[in-house]
Design goal:
Layout: E1 30-34, H1 62-75, E2 79-83, H2 93-101, E3 108-113, H3 118-128, E4 132-136, H4 142-149, H5 154-166, E5 173-178, H6 187-196, E6 200-205, H7 213-218, H8 223-234, E7 237-239, E8 250-254, E9 260-264, E10 277-280, E11 285-287, E12 295-297, H9 299-303, H10 308-320, H11 339-342
Helix pairs in contact: 2-3, 3-5, 6-8
The structure holds S-adenosylmethionine (SAM) and iron/sulfur cluster.
């Protein structure tokens, strides 16, 4: 079947070079793995307050997770980020990190977390082989933090950031989703953090998923607006040279700052051309594009006894057919899963 964008066949020709490449020549060497859809917070842009989580038996157990992850690394994945849901609530997280960190060929292992449990586990995670951590923090105001997360304690997140730094999980990246009516006026204080600290603060445009899509689309604040707000208060942002085309956040610096500032503008300025990502959901499906519902179920065939060769062939074909990019500009919104069920 030809692809509507390029006219190219979706079937992977047998002569295709080895490794995880799609038909546009993009190399997919970065895998984000959702360890669980469960979370200890309920951020308003991410999930409803009365969220129904999947039964445990539907999720990959540790052995299944290791089998699929090892296969992906042997196919060409070099960088892994563990996420969720909240990855730190997954039982045996330290053991999972210890095992995955040793897969031959893996160069970078990071985690994205809300930070609440880091005071207890940052040090063991670093010892197990975790390289880096991204921590989500949308405001420095405890009341606003509670309103966004529905019950979170800002001071606990702050303790988590300090624990990550003390454990050497650097560079620390702070993810801030900017949501109109909740924190668009907080971006200046968050940006100001980079004056004193060597952190990278990244402002993310809110994206629409599933049942929360309409809400998300009603509260988008563009990166352009966020940048204007920051520059009006703190002066011009200077681009830092040497930006990797695979990094969605082009880095900037305020004059004299120790840290940097980035903008992830998925909605207003898609960066699909440089996409090098795949996602493995907690229930074992390979998601080819964050914002498109097309997926390859890997866990069901594995549980039914498919051998590794068969699974590898399926994965290579699915990756080859990865869609060019998302369809938000055309009004196509992913409906199947929330961000927390994909692995943001
Ligand atoms: N629980 C962890 C955390 O919050 O860092 C990891 C999972 S969370 C889904 C990963 C990232 O996705 C977080 O930085 C979060 O703020 C972001 N996120 C969640 N829902 C989003 C949405 N609708 N649009 C944009 N970013 C979103
Ligand atoms: Fe939980 Fe992270 Fe979603 Fe917030 S963004 S509800 S912390 S998964």
């Amino acid at each position: 079947m030809p692809d509507s964008r390029s006219g190219e066949p979706l079937e992977r020709p047998s002569s295709t070079r080895s490794g995880l490449y799609d038909r546009f020549g993009r190399r997919l060497n970065y895998l984000r793995i959702s360890l669980t859809d469960v979370c200890n917070l309920r951020c308003v842009y991410c999930m409803p307050e009365k969220m129904q989580f999947r039964p445990r038996r539907e999720l990959m157990n540790d052995d299944e997770l290791f089998f699929i992850t090892r296969m992906m690394v042997s196919l060409g994945v070099e960088k892994i980020r563990l996420t969720g849901g909240e990855p730190t609530v997954r039982p045996n997280l330290v053991g999972i990190v210890r095992t995955i960190a040793r897969f031959p060929g893996l160069r970078d292992l990071a985690i994205t977390t809300n930070g609440l449990l880091l005071p207890q586990i940052a040090e063991p995670l670093a010892r197990a082989g975790l390289n880096r951590v991204n921590i989500s923090l949308d405001t420095l105001d405890p009341e606003k933090f509670r309103r966004i997360t529905r019950w979170g304690d800002l001071h606990a997140v702050w303790a988590g950031i300090e624990a990550a730094e003390a454990a050497g999980l650097r560079p620390i990246k702070i993810n801030a989703v900017v949501t109109r009516g909740f924190n668009e006026d907080e971006v200046v204080d968050l940006a100001r953090l980079t004056l004193e600290r060597e952190w990278e603060v990244r402002f993310i445009e809110v994206m629409p998923f599933g049942s929360e899509a309409d809400f998300a689309q009603s509260v988008v604040v563009t990166s352009q607006e966020t940048r204007r707000r920051i520059e009006e208060a703190l002066g011009p942002l200077y681009e830092i040279p040497g930006h990797s085309p695979n990094d969605p956040a082009r880095p900037y610096r305020l004059a004299g700052a120790r840290g940097s500032i980035g903008f992830i503008s998925t909605v207003s300025e898609p960066f699909c051309a440089g996409c090098n990502r795949l996602r493995l959901t907690a229930d074992g499906t390979l998601r080819l594009c964050l914002l498109r519902d097309g997926e390859l179920d890997v866990l069901t065939p594995l549980r039914r006894g498919a051998n590794e060769e068969e699974l590898r062939a399926r994965i290579l074909n699915a990756v080859y057919a990865k869609p060019w990019g998302h369809g938000l500009p055309e009004g196509e919104v992913p409906r199947l899963r929330l961000m927390s069920q994909i692995g943001g």
